[in-house]
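Morning!

As promised:
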Amino acid sequence: MTWLDLAADDPFGVHNLPYGAFDPGDGSRRLGARIGGQVLDLAALERVGLVEAHSTLQATTLNPFLALGRPYWTAVRDRLTELLTDPAFRDRIQPLLLPLAEVTPQLPFEVGDYVDFYSSLTHATNLGRLFRPGAEPLLPNWRHLPIGYHGRAGTVVVSGTDIVRPSGQRKPPDADAPTFGPSRCLDIEAEVGFVVGAASSLGRPLTTKDFHEYVFGVVLVNDWSARDLQAWEYQPLGPFLGKSFATSVSAWVVPLDALASARVPAPQQSPLVLPYLADERIGYDIRIEVVWDGTVVSRPPFSGLYWTPAQQLAHLTANGASVRPGDLYASGTVSGRERDQVGSFIELTWGGAEPVTLADGRTRTFVEDGDTVTLTATAPGPDGTVVGFGEVVGRILPAVS
Amino acid sequence: MTWLDLAADDPFGVHNLPYGAFDPGDGSRRLGARIGGQVLDLAALERVGLVEAHSTLQATTLNPFLALGRPYWTAVRDRLTELLTDPAFRDRIQPLLLPLAEVTPQLPFEVGDYVDFYSSLTHATNLGRLFRPGAEPLLPNWRHLPIGYHGRAGTVVVSGTDIVRPSGQRKPPDADAPTFGPSRCLDIEAEVGFVVGAASSLGRPLTTKDFHEYVFGVVLVNDWSARDLQAWEYQPLGPFLGKSFATSVSAWVVPLDALASARVPAPQQSPLVLPYLADERIGYDIRIEVVWDGTVVSRPPFSGLYWTPAQQLAHLTANGASVRPGDLYASGTVSGRERDQVGSFIELTWGGAEPVTLADGRTRTFVEDGDTVTLTATAPGPDGTVVGFGEVVGRILPAVS
């Protein structure tokens, strides 16, 4: 039990303790841990000697701390838990707590490489139907390997960043030539992202068993997608400008250690995977909510994903590719089997053919200028608690003319 | 004329002055400029006050210097030229010159995002024929936009780094299921890479006219490719593990300013491109040589590429995506029309069907363990000089078992 005045069901209790970066209001950038509605100033905490992590907590991004590896992650987490539960520390900790409302969250880590997978069977099937009508929706490779691609790391932005509607080329099938202009099919993708901590060596693949040693924590991801740009550009080398304008992530990285009680069996796979992808079939019971201008329009269940994050890490490095602190790999759009469980609007409205009605009566097909989309999520914590994720919120600004 | 004892036709004369990073032998990392067979220690040069660039020349990568922007790039280049041509500086400069043979080149910049284009009409047509036999080789979008995708920035390595043969999944068309093992079709891609200097703002596209302000210089790129892995994985999201194991770059970044005399008209485009891609049709007469274990097997001409680097930059940012100092975008495989001008071995040997014979009589289809592949290049410099590029050399080590 924490000595802070926190409700037992607060999703940001001591059982969670996610890490992030914030601007306290003076334009600087500091690391912090979120506890309830407050932020513990980790830079100050280390400076006064209450925690020790080789000065990495005084950096402006989590990357140096991530690079220390699992023994340090555990030691610092244990220490923070002690400081926030033993009342003997109350008087020294309290001055280091800032109200969340008075700080501005920053991107918590410098993104190394950003990889986006495609691991929901339902999403891959739906997109196959929408992008390649008349053809077999699931390609022959899909059940043999976690399909993925590299996204743009430099345009990963923190929750709260406004998103300018992208322009680009699009060509409807019945047009003779492409035109250039603002995307007419701006979409979201609700995903779960895994933040790599420890570095691996070039030429040395990791295995599915290495997941816990190399992955530090989890963020929510909204991989904004311009479907009209994507449809015209993506053959043969994959999505590019249809995705690269922005990817929003939550401001608080939930440590893997906070998700031990959220582990659930992942779906069995058929056909059997190749040995390098064999794993313990551990999924995470992360329940996402997609909120479109105030209306909950979908509740994608992460637990049902076909490919697990451990398999994704093993696949990502199977060719000897190395990982670095700050690498981010996302699950791909989380879509459950039901229409109100899908993680993208192209699925929700079936390519725009079946508009959704918001709570106030407005209808929507794709995201309009001024719309705000928010992703939130929770997962089971220890002893009946709930682990909260920071929200991912983004508002759409009109295209640059 | 430099006061150094350099041949007039030295491709690394004062007309070139490429930048890089090196280890002088003590495990440290310093910036330098190459002049002939020597390296000018830029960190020391700035420390003693002979050049001034806000201490960025004392960093361990070029990124802080790149971020200063074109006015500083020009000022520092002008100053280096002065120091190396005015004999009054000889006695102060000479102690700061190290023999190239006594230092170890390092990756010159930390790679932000790595984008690989696909801008050779011949290469795209050849690959279309090889990967999608029986279908129209060039997809409908190819002449309307420079097709590209994001590669893995964290596995960009400097010339001289050994390349471990990647393993992965591959499935021949007649097999029932994929197998996992070392790639049997390890290939190269000879490319020209553009190093972004100045940062742009998210949401604000650049134009083709911004090329000279934002791009600092040029490296040679070997985008190693495992064709069997690529063929099985690349649908629908593009190349991933078939490419992400390693990309080699030359150690010396040739400033755009050194290539003014290499500018040549780029091929005219038909159909006309959309207005945001209209440019001055400026190509660069960079002549690449591909050397396979000592035998020159190809001479790809960069000047013939359909899409120019100015168009690539405008396209890359057309959706509002920002660029950062250290971003690298490569041309895609440079293939001329003739068989001895192609930039990949899958083209040279037509998918392995037509082996090449090396000078010593050995034959090759794809790259074998122990093989060394070297790319070199030259371009016309001012007053009849030649601009040399640093080589890109890589030797293949056997797969990890």
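The domain at 114-397 of chain B is CATH 3.90.850.10 (Fumarylacetoacetate hydrolase; domain 2).

Hope this helps with the figure draft.
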